[in-house]
Amino acid sequence: MKTFLDEVNERIDGVPIQRCYHCRKCTAGCPMAFVMEYNPNKVIKMIQMGKKEEVLGSSTIWLCASCETCITRCPNEVDIARMMDVLRQMALESGKGAKEKSVLAFHEAFLSSIRSGGRLNEPMMMVNYKLKSGDLFSDMALGLDMFTKGKLSIFAPKTKDVASVRKIFEKTKTA
Known about the structure:
The protein has helices at about 5-10, 25-30, 40-50, 50-55, 60-65, 70-75, 80-95, 100-115, 120-135, 140-150, 160-170.
């Protein structure tokens, strides 16, 4: 029978997380650690201890910005950002979703944008996010300001091989 640690390692498909010796360099460099219920080091410890429900039900996995500061600081190259991606997908598959519904709405809008065009289409992603979250007007002035300053484009960059991107989504069974 597979343990939670086995499940996560299998899906990470890289450096196994048991290589972590809890030096806490990942946590020290994490720009989001201050808002997480469990710091990155603690999440690894919880996985190693088999605390699947607590990990998948935590807000921590949804607050990770995937900036990869953790992996650049890790002496053993444990890819915590990838681990958090895997944990988010496992939470969705188990029906847990996210405590922060707006974070889940953003996650879904982001992946939908990548799946449909192969790259991020910011305007379409934001429209999708706003519709999913129900928060239609809270930052409209900011969006207009970004557009007028040329920080937000109407047209998205194109990917030549969108079919390959879609195959990746199919292969990984990502939402």
